[in-house]
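Bug #2210: token dump truncated for YdhG-like domain-containing protein?
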Amino acid sequence: MVRDGYPAGSVDEYLDAVPPEQGAALRLVRDRLLEVVPDAEQVISYQVPTLRYRGTGLVALSVATTHCSLHLMSPPLATALAGVLGEGKLSGATLQFDAGAPLSVETVRLIAERRMAEVDARLG
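Reproduced locally. Full output below:
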């Protein structure tokens, strides 16, 4: 998942470096994630903003030329959500969305809660 173009040492540096509309959309999604996972650690991993939960990558955010992405970091979760999500477009384990239509609170909550359940089940 290494990306070119926006090297940064922190999540805020990354969000400041991307085009403004995409940065605003990613900030909104990040903030919605933090409402669900307030103790998440924000780090840059594989050159993109990543939220860690219990020391494990939970989800990551990035931009591409034509869209923003929420990386679910779980192919099984992506498969389970196929046909369930009413917004964005799943491509593998990545949910792509337009900067003008950031992911809703409901979608972000669903993804974060299911990813936390996966991490909790694995770590015990």
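Output looks complete on our side. The radius of gyration is 13 Å. Marking as cannot-reproduce; reopen if the truncation happens again.
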